[in-house]
Amino acid sequence: MISYEDLPAGRVIDLGSTTVDRDEMLAFAQRFDPQPFHLDEEAGKRSVLGGLCASGWFTMGLWMRAYVDHVLADSTSQGSPGGREMSWPAPVFPGDTLSFALEVEKARLSRTRPGLGLVDIRGTAHRHDGQLVLRCTFTGMFSSRDAVS
């Protein structure tokens, strides 16, 4: 089980990869982000994005799923109070294979809650050509080993 002590500053965790499924991408856009360039091939081609592309929120959801599968599902996670950055520096297209990672930027014990660690995390996703397509920073809260023993 991953606890606060397993997440020191500088640790990098590979979160695996996934290939963007066109039907899932479109279903997400239809429900949550129905902008034309997320729904229609021709509108995407006419946009600055150059083609039908994924909502950034969909891309963030893919990253979050990888984070849950590789870290949170077997951890002492206590949630997150939020983040400071989320950016999508390049578009994601159907069929793109994305690789996900996280880096621990800083880790510290809470001054007010004994046994709780605050872990500043930078998450990234890169397209198969190496292009950065997602960057996010947020704080995760993890119990220390002593708190769960």
From TrEMBL:
<dbReference type="Pfam" id="PF01575">
    <property type="entry name" value="MaoC_dehydratas"/>
</dbReference>
<comment type="similarity">
    <text>Belongs to the enoyl-CoA hydratase/isomerase family.</text>
</comment>
<protein>
    <recommendedName>
        <fullName>MaoC-like domain-containing protein</fullName>
    </recommendedName>
</protein>
<dbReference type="InterPro" id="IPR029069">
    <property type="entry name" value="HotDog_dom_sf"/>
</dbReference>
<feature type="domain" description="MaoC-like">
    <location>
        <begin position="16"/>
        <end position="111"/>
    </location>
</feature>
<dbReference type="InterPro" id="IPR052342">
    <property type="entry name" value="MCH/BMMD"/>
</dbReference>
<dbReference type="InterPro" id="IPR002539">
    <property type="entry name" value="MaoC-like_dom"/>
</dbReference>
